[in-house]
Specification:
There is one protein chain. The chain is an alpha/beta fold. The protein is built from ten helices and 16 strands. The strands form four sheets. The chain has a six-stranded mixed sheet, sandwiched between helices. The longest helix is centred in the middle third of the chain and has 16 residues. The radius of gyration is 24 Å and the shape is globular. The N and C termini lie far apart (about 50 Å).
Length: about 350
Amino acid sequence: MSELTPVVELCNITKRFPGIIANDSISLKLQHGEIHALLGENGAGKSTLMNILFGLYQPDEGHIKVQGKEVDIDSPNRAIELGIGMVHQHFKLVQPFTVTENIILGMEPKKGMNVDYKTAQDKVRKLSEQYGLRVDPKAKIEDISVGMQQRVEILKTLYRGADILIFDEPTAVLTPQEIKELIVIMRNLVKEGKSIILITHKLKEIMEIADKVTIIRRGKVIDSLTISDTNPQILAEKMVGRDVTFKVNKEDVKLGEPVLQVQDLLSRDHQGLPALKGLSFEVKAGEILGIAGVDGNGQSELIEALTGLRAIDSGRVLLLGKDITNHTPRQISELGYRIFQRIGINTDSYWIFQ
């Protein structure tokens, strides 16, 4: 095989779902040792295309070449046989299991009739050290951070011999420091001869880590560019199909009285550990309040507590001065509707988005 032969080539891939063409004759080439970013808005067709490459979907039209040979990838097992691994945005890990147990699941090494955990742990440790992942093979998944759990997913692909890695929105659940560490890990992977497809819509990360970028909009390839020949402005405009400004001018807004008040909220997760620890804030009429945090830091628990889906252990939630702490979802909905109607507020104007 020539050095110029792509390690992966997608040729005119088309995938249809009822009422929509998710991928419309998409072609893409990944070279050896390259980080190739797949850029597009949510719903552009990026994940669908990579799920086809990983064997989760089958294309309606087109074909795939791996190492220059046309292949039929009809399942993830076939993709793994071909050296393709995928690090999913939502991790596929068993929380009570150890790192090693998760990594070897489905291909456990045997010593006689028993699973050879020592050999497996040694292999996991060596892979972790080789690629700078610093993962403890004996740690339980439920006891490690989200960033470490992602590294376990990376180790799963490496343990199975992957030379081609697909990262699906890998930075969406990471802190800024973890993002920097992931970029170092990806560079280590490339130095060791791996090739990477990175699904993302974050322009800064593409400019920092990728070699090439393919932009997809509404299921079609808009352009493929070398990173050195482009910039975030060009990428943003190609991604959304219109002129883009990165500066937003906001007018001063006159806020009203508090609509929602949260006071010293304490609520526990399924393990009995505090998920919300003395949380307090208020939302005023006419205000949009953003709550920032990486996945797993209490956002879901907060929404559930506010909407009556999760028990509140202590603290209070007030809706226009009325205590709705530990009310049912129906009670909260009906009370809010009656209050808003009584004081003349449009009941379609107040929403919680997660």
